[in-house]
Amino acid sequence: MKIDIILSGVGGQGILSIAAIIGEAALKEGLYMKQSEVHGMSQRGGDVQSNLRLSDRPVASDLIPLGQADLIISLEPMESLRYLPYLQKDGWLVTSAQPFINIPNYPPIETIQAELDKLPNKVSLDVETLAKEAGSVRTANIVMLGAATPFLRIGYDKIADGIRSIFGRKGDDIVQMNLRALQAGYDAVKTDK
């Protein structure tokens, strides 16, 4: 088993939390893992991207070559476009439908959506609405993780355990809210398929 994942978004959206949860779940699954991160000038609103490589065999490099990603998980539609050259022809994109407009010349969302609609394997969700319904808009990243879980090749229960491990120190209310968000994203994709 091998899966190469690119996580993308902008600073403050929780990309690195998603990476930490998947990493924790992968370790519990007994997988090897390599991760590389790029922080967009370490500020809210800058580009944030992480390469996450998981395998049942040792992983040599932490960077995913062009055209080799099995999955892109993106919390921002324009950031999805930025990393599409890395996606395999039969790879999956799981992205937020809502833009995070952080630049004055942000292209029309319809233009971005038209490009994304050309992909054969894509899930696009209004994660903010689902996150609000789950308890807090701040869990949008976990809703996105839930939507991506069917494509991770790691059991849902291991991802949920990763949430418990990563957020456990923040208290049970935070853990439960994030577990509801995970389930909301997962259910949205499972009913879509």
Summarize this entry quickly:
This protein is α/β, with parallel strands linked by helices. It has seven helices and six strands.
Total beta strand runs: 6
> Could you report the average pLDDT, rounded to the nearest whole number?
91
Order of helices and strands: EHEEEHEHEHHHH
| General shape | globular
**Biggest pleated sheet:** 6 strands, mixed
**Proportion of residues in helical segments:** 40-55%
Compute the separation of the termini in Å. Answer: 23 Å
Content-based structural category:
alpha/beta
Portion of residues in beta strands equals 15-25%
What's the assembly state of these chains? single chain
* Strand line-up across the major sheet: 2-3-1-4-5-6
Walk me through this protein's architecture.
- This protein has a six-stranded mixed beta sheet, sandwiched between helices.
- Strand 2 and strand 3 form a beta hairpin.
- The protein is built from seven helices and six strands; from the N terminus they run βαβββαβαβαααα.
- The two termini are about 25 Å apart.
- The protein has helices at about 15-30, 75-85, 110-115, 125-135, 140-150, 155-165, 170-190, and strands at about 1-10, 30-40, 45-55, 70-75, 85-95, 120-125.
- By secondary structure, it is α/β, with parallel strands linked by helices.
